[in-house]
């Protein structure tokens, strides 16, 4: 079978299974199996697939039709212009999380010690480490597997980040200019509202807040009160409808900065600034 035929056949089958963006998905899967970029498929469309390449594509189509997210099949996701390795132990980085990066960069810190809580693939910590020259970045996650994957990403992308396995900020010492976090914020009762790909394949520890909806945010604010330097920032991603409740956690000693909204106008990134001493 040629590349052209394989693509047509794969796209038709994916379409039949109501997989969104069937043609694009077919291209990404085939490019992955051939270890080439998508453009190659068009410049070599009459190349005949080898047996193992056809088998790889067949397996990949089957996985995708079974609901496995495309990113877990190909093992990577782009975030802020770089590719991060991902697998079922970590959340697939989302575009809205890039607002955390924008928020830090807009503040344009001169000195910069950063702590990323719940680092997952390491996308936030690694990106900030690479975007801000001279920054000192630390990151942690309760999941050992996530910490390992974040370490791999930091190594592959050349970022100098210190990683630790930790429960929120327990056991972390030192003071920071920024504490950033995209914590798990889905209410367990909302599981049925999630897409099948998310519900069945992304790690529950990365999705669901284990306590009450605000539990992890409360711990982040309390921890940041201790660990932020005067004038430092706590920047957190929030879920739909959470802005007011999360902002209410910033009490005396905090300045609330304007929340960033995503492209749909949903408030996504809350920012609190710890008051300067004196
Ligand atoms: C929504 S994911 C975010 C992952 C990554 N920062 C991102 O934005 O793609 C939340 C992460 O927090 C971690 N996590 C959950 N509970 C935690 C806790 N109590 N302490 C530290 N990390 C936690 C999960 O393992 C997961 O990696």
Q: Provide the succession of SSEs.
A: HHHHHEEHEHEHEEHHHEHEE
Q: Give the radius of gyration.
A: 21 Å
Name of the CATH superfamily of the largest domain: Vaccinia Virus protein VP39
User: Any idea of the CATH class of the largest domain?
Assistant: Alpha Beta
What are the SSEs and their pairings?
Layout: H1 3-16, H2 22-34, H3 38-43, H4 51-65, H5 70-74, E1 76-79, E2 82-85, H6 98-107, E3 113-117, H7 123-131, E4 136-141, H8 144-157, E5 161-165, E6 176-181, H9 196-201, H10 204-207, H11 215-227, E7 228-237, H12 243-247, E8 254-261, E9 267-274
Parallel strand pairs: 3-4, 3-6, 4-5, 6-7
Antiparallel strand pairs: 1-2, 7-9, 8-9
Helix pairs in contact: 1-2, 1-4, 2-4, 6-7
Protein architecture, described:
The chain has 278 residues and is α/β, with parallel strands linked by helices. The chain has helices spanning 3-16, 22-34, 38-43, 51-65, 70-74, 98-107, 123-131, 144-157, 196-201, 204-207, 215-227, 243-247; strands spanning 76-79, 82-85, 113-117, 136-141, 161-165, 176-181, 228-237, 254-261, 267-274. A hairpin with a 5-residue loop joins β8 and β9. The structure holds S-adenosylmethionine.
Quick recap of the structure?
Helix content is 41%, strand content 20%.
Keywords:
single chain, 278 residues, alpha/beta, Rossmann fold, 2 domains, seven-stranded mixed sheet, two-stranded antiparallel ribbon, 12 helices, 41% helix, binds S-adenosylmethionine
């Amino acid at each position: 079978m040629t590349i052209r035929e394989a693509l047509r056949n794969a796209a038709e089958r994916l379409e039949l299974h109501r997989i969104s963006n069937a043609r694009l998905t077919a291209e990404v899967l085939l490019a992955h199996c051939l270890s080439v970029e998508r453009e190659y498929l068009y410049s070599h469309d009459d190349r005949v697939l080898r047996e193992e390449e056809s088998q790889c594509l067949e397996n990949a189509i089957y996985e995708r039709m079974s609901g496995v997210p495309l990113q877990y099949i190909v093992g990577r996701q782009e975030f802020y212009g770089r590719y991060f390795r991902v697998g079922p132990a970590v959340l697939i980085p989302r575009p809205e999380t890039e607002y955390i990066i924008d928020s830090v960069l807009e503040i344009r810190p001169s000195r910069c010690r950063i702590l990323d809580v719940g680092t997952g693939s390491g996308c936030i910590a690694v990106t900030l480490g690479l975007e801000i020259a001279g920054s000192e970045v630390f990151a942690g996650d309760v999941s050992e597997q996530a910490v390992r994957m974040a370490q791999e990403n930091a190594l592959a992308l050349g970022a100098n980040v210190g990683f630790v396995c930790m429960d929120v900020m327990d056991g972390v010492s030192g003071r920071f200019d920024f504490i950033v976090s995209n914590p798990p914020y889905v209410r367990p009762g909302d599981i049925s509202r999630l897409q099948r790909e998310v519900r069945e394949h992304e790690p529950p520890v990365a999705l669901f807040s284990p306590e009450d909806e605000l539990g992890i945010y409360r711990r982040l604010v309390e921890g940041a009160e201790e660990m932020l330097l005067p004038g430092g920032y706590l920047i957190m991603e929030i879920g739909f409808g959470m802005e007011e409740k999360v902002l209410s956690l910033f009490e005396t000693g905090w300045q609330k900065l304007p929340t960033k909204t995503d492209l749909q106008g949903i408030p996504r990134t809350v920012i609190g600034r710890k008051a300067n001493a004196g």
